[in-house]
Design a protein that fits this description.
globular, 15 helices, nine-stranded mixed beta sheet
């Protein structure tokens, strides 16, 4: 983290009044960021070394994150879209001693039973000297609902930030639009640490992150058109929403854009190409929290559709019996409460590497389905084919030890009417068309169609909208099950 802090001080000394962050409340300069982070540090109670952050995307969040990074604190981001039970588990598991929170979320923070203080700091103080010891504890919801903490240190975060800056060709002219929730590690790096490193600036949009908590989908096309950023990071669902709205209106993405990353879930190759066709310069990547968020990334001058790009320079990626294994400086310190990790991490993901070093991810090793005829099928492989249709928002394939596979489909906004009027045979015909490149045994022969709100009500989704695979397969496992 020292490299990032020194870069911030260097940029502040040269152009201290230049805006670095902004949100609905206004702009904040580089000098003010330094002053507010230092004042926040000096205001903390003695002994408060493990800090929880609970707020919407904002400048206040960014300042608090910077404060923790440069003062040797342990920071545990608390996702507002997690349940109160999950947040309580994080607070206890990480040993959080103080929660910095927004006024709107103070009741949720107070329910955890630890001290709370406002995350907003309007005071300024002389910059503090860098203090070693920063840790970031990242929690993912997982498929069981019980979050597990990943221990990362300043070394992993700094290395990943520098590697991403190089891969994405980030520079001081960059204007980053922060849409994904800041508790996601990639968003913290992309929206906060990377702009500080290169001297760019960031606009935080609090409302857009609410979609992860079940809020309304934002008008992505209008947001990008009004802000005209150079870069951003999106989830596949938001990329699809943006591309479809541009195609429907005959418009193109703003020409200010130069780099839009997409990841977090499989992204159909057809969606990548459709995005490029309407002017979205999108680059798919792959990573996981245990490797500080990014392992491989397509990048300017080195992009191959259908892959997640080449590994970041300095990481060694190999395959062992089809499993992706990563070795290098971004591998985590370990799980919270567990032993230290080695520098080599078995990801549990299946993949292939082509002759040019481009990585293709084929799904989770522990999600592998084996039909009653002994055929192995990676469900993510088929799901990516299905998600190429704009009428499908989310899908999951199941059928372990069954004679055929079943597709669970959640219609998109654009597909709600079609699925409501479709006969069962119409849905199966659509599935067959979308999966035409798959072998016969891998094409789902049954389908369940259910809206996202119903799936969420049944407890079959994680807080960030992913399927709880075992629970969903058990619920809809009967032959011919339909909603």
């Amino acid at each position: 983290m020292r490299e990032i802090y020194e870069a911030l001080r260097r940029h502040a000394s040269k152009q201290g009044d230049k805006p670095a962050f902004c949100d609905a409340a206004g702009d904040v300069s580089r000098s003010e960021i330094l002053g507010r982070a230092s004042a926040l540090y000096r205001s903390l109670p003695a002994g408060a070394n493990r800090i929880g952050l609970l707020s919407a995307n904002s400048v206040d969040w960014a300042v608090a994150q910077i404060m923790g990074g440069v003062s040797g604190k342990t920071v545990a981001p608390l996702p507002p879209f997690f349940s109160s039970e999950q947040l309580g588990h994080i607070v206890r598991d990480a040993g959080v001693e103080l929660i910095l929170c927004s006024d709107a979320l103070r009741p949720l923070a107070a329910a955890s039973g630890v001290a709370t203080e406002t995350i907003a700091c309007r005071q300024r103080a002389e910059p503090i000297d860098f203090i070693e010891g920063f840790k970031q504890i990242i929690y993912t919801s997982g498929s069981t609902g019980r979050p597990k903490g990943v221990r990362l240190g300043g070394r992993q975060v700094s290395w990943s930030t520098l590697a991403l800056a190089e891969a994405s060709e980030a520079n001081e002219e960059d204007f980053y639009l922060s849409i994904l929730p800041l508790p996601l590690l990639l968003e913290t790096i992309s929206a906060i640490f990377l702009p500080l490193l290169v001297g760019g600036r960031t606009r935080f949009v609090a409302e857009s992150a609410n979609v992860f908590g079940g809020g309304a989908l934002p008008d992505i096309a209008a947001l990008f058109e009004s802000e005209r950023p150079t870069s951003s990071v999106l989830a596949p669902q938001l990329l699809g929403l943006w591309a479809r709205r541009l195609m429907a209106s005959g418009r193109r993405a703003p020409d200010s854009l130069r780099f839009v990353a997409v990841g977090g879930a499989p992204t159909p190759a057809a969606l990548i190409e459709a995005a490029w066709a309407v002017g979205i310069p999108v680059y798919e990547g792959y990573g996981l929290s245990e490797c500080c968020s990014v392992v491989a990334l397509n990048r300017p001058g080195a992009r191959k559709t259908g892959t997640v790009g080449r590994p970041l320079p300095g990481l060694r990626v190999r395959l062992e019996e089809g499993e992706i294994v990563v070795e290098g400086p971004s591998v985590m310190e370990g799980y919270l409460g567990g032993p230290d990790a080695e520098a080599t991490w078995r990801t549990g993901d299946l993949g292939t590497l082509d002759a040019e070093g481009y990585l293709t991810v084929q799904g989770r090793k522990d999600n592998l389905l084996v039909t009653s005829l002994g055929r192995n099928v990676s469900p993510e492989w088929i799901e990516t084919m299905l998600l190429a249709d704009p009428r499908i928002s989310h899908c999951m394939v199941f059928g372990y030890a069954a004679p055929h596979l079943t597709a669970l489909i959640a219609p998109s906004e654009a597909g709600t009417e079609w699925f409501a009027n479709a006969r069962p045979d119409d849905t199966l015909e659509l599935i067959s068309q979308l999966c035409a490149k798959a072998p016969d045994y891998a094409i789902p022969r049954d389908a369940v169609v259910a809206p996202m709100r119903r799936l969420a009500g049944l407890g079959l989704l994680t807080p960030n909208g992913r399927f709880r695979r075992k629970a969903a397969a058990a619920h809809f496992g009967g032959d011919g099950a339909r909603v």
